[in-house]
Amino acid sequence: MLKRNSIRVERLREKLGKANAVRTKVLDEMKFIRSWAQNPLRTGAVSPSGSDLATKMASYLTPRPHSRVVELGPGTGVVTKALIDRGFTHKHLNLIEYSEEFCELLSLRYPGLPIQQGDAYTLTETLRKPKGFLTGETQVKHTLDGIVSSLPLLTRSEPVRRALLDEAFHLLKPGAPFIQFSYGLVAPIKPDNRAVSVYSSEWVWKNLPPARVWVYRKGH
After folding, report:
1. How far is CA 85 from CA 63, 146, 186, in A?
2. What domains can be seen in the chain, in order of their start residue?
3. What keywords tag this UniProt record (predicted)?
4. CA dist., res. 158 & res. 165, Å (int)
């Protein structure tokens, strides 16, 4: 009898867990839709990235004791969770989010993670703000081990996109990746420097809409 009741309780817990996960997903999508309706050029997408796409993005990074990884445009934190599942902690991560609402949500969902409300397109300046990786540092060149971006890059002009990539490479260590997803057939940023390599993943068909991950690297 006790064993049967224990099984029932466990099944109920599983159902409640699934129900909470569905509820969270729906609420996140509602937040995205509201944010997109208020400023479509800032938000870009009408729903968060799927977990499979987020896992793919995180897979190009390996946590090490002193890793410093910046996430741009974390939104509701889907990629953030994938990075944490990958082994990164609050000591390794620095999140930059433009939306005040998403910043508040991220603070509740991931207490202890350094989250800055700011503009990712002024990357160095934003990272110099309190709690940023570059706060109080005089030497900022080649100090980051990776940048993971969910920014809606194609809402910006090509010169602005290239300027972001150039600034990212100024901060990244040689060979460290700038990781970006896109729904398009071509690279979201076309580098004008032969020293920059670009790799694209296979399509992540489970994402809606299907997307690919683009990984940019630059040597010395």
Report:
1. 11, 16, 29
2. 40-218 (3.40.50.150)
3. Methyltransferase, RNA-binding, S-adenosyl-L-methionine, Transferase
4. 11
- Which residues are paired to 146 by β-bridges? 69
Q: H helices of the chain, where? A: 2-38, 40-43, 51-58, 78-86, 100-109, 123-127, 158-171
Give, in order, the Cα–Cα distances in Å from 70 to each of 2, 20, 35, 103, 119: 50, 29, 22, 15, 13
CA–CA separation, 10 and 8 (whole Å)? 5
The answer, yes or no, to whether the previous bond of 40 is cis (omega within 30 of 0) is no
Q: Residue for token digits 């400023």?
A: 39
- Long-range contacts from 184-190, C-beta under 8 angstroms, 24+ separation: 184/154, 187/214, 188/153, 188/154, 188/161, 188/214, 189/153, 189/158, 189/161, 189/162, 189/164, 189/165, 189/214, 189/216, 190/158, 190/162
Q: Where are the beta strands (DSSP E) in 102-149?
A: 115-117, 146-149
Side chain identity, residue 18: K
Global confidence as pTM: 0.80
Compute the distance between CA of residue 211 and CA of residue 203 in angstroms, rounded to an integer: 6
Q: What H or E segment, with its residue span, contains residue 198?
A: strand 196-200
Q: Residue 38 pLDDT > 60, yes or no?
A: no
| Position with higher pLDDT, 139 vs 58 | 58
Top-confidence residue, 29 or 22? 29
